[in-house]
Design a protein that fits this description.
The chain is of the alpha/beta class. The chain has one domain: TIM Barrel (Alpha-Beta Barrel). Helix content is 48%, strand content 15%. The strands form three sheets. A four-stranded parallel β-sheet has the order 3-2-1-9. A three-stranded parallel β-sheet has the order 6-7-8. Helix 2 runs parallel beside helix 11. The N terminus is likely disordered. It binds 3-phosphoglyceric acid (3PG). 3-phosphoglyceric acid (3PG) binds next to strand 9.
Length: 215
């Protein structure tokens, strides 16, 4: 199994802020605020032209930050993010080609799944930790309870609609070691350079995780 071992440090993170960065010069400041407020593991989504240079800049400038690449959809992107210094890659969904290149790559890979059949395929490809996306729209905590009964060996990183309001319910599930989401540092706050609000959101989330004893 390729799986969990390489993802242990990610799971320890409990929360992975998902970022959309449109200007490279905003990448390091936002990563720094998250690091300083207790969230050293972040995901920069490949949704903007600034994403790859931002990953590179963060990985070159802030070695304490574990920066991964999100929204990885092709084998070419997987190679590109690895070469740019990403510590891990996350996909919204999967394909045979993506699995093949993820297995060949030594880069930790969190495959996106949405159905039991996709979980079976992830398992067959050797992955026992998956991103479940879009989690809230798929059924959220109740859906995950059902999946845990069917796949007791699997762990999940719910993403999509995770917020301060449901964070504790998700992380209380034994099948959920880590969640990801944009609510801590949404694009609007990054563009506005509202580092104070991002820091407040981050600290509140870290506190909630602390109350669970999962920190
Ligand atoms: C992602 O890219 O993983 C999701 O879009 C994050 O979902 P959220 O914005 O609902 O947190």
């Amino acid at each position: 199994m390729i799986d969990s071992l390489s993802f242990e440090s990610l799971c320890e993170a409990s929360i992975i802020p998902v970022l959309v960065v449109r200007e490279v010069e905003l990448a390091v400041p936002v990563a720094q605020v998250l690091l300083d407020s207790g969230l050293p593991t972040i995901e920069v989504t490949l949704r903007t032209e600034a994403a790859i240079p931002s990953i590179k800049k963060i990985s070159d400038t802030l070695p304490e930050v574990i920066v991964g690449a999100g929204t990885v959809r092709t084998p070419e992107q997987l190679t590109l993010v690895k070469d740019s210094g990403a510590a891990f890659a996350v996909s919204p969904g999967t394909s045979e080609k993506l699995y093949d290149s993820a297995v060949d790559s030594s880069l930790p890979f969190l495959p996106g799944v949405a159905t039991p059949s996709e979980i079976l395929k992830a398992r067959e490809a050797g992955f026992t930790i998956c991103k479940i996306f879009p989690s809230e729209k798929l059924g959220g905590v109740e859906m995950l309870k059902t999946l845990a009964e069917i796949f007791p060996e699997m762990k999940f990183c719910p993403t999509g609609g995770v917020s301060e309001a449901n964070l504790v319910s998700y992380l209380s599930l034994t099948s959920v070691p880590v969640v990801a989401g944009s609510w801590i540092a949404p694009e609007s706050l990054i563009v506005a350079k509202d580092w104070t609000e991002i820091e407040n959101r981050s600290r509140r989330a870290v506190e909630l995780v602390g109350s669970l004893g999962k920190e």
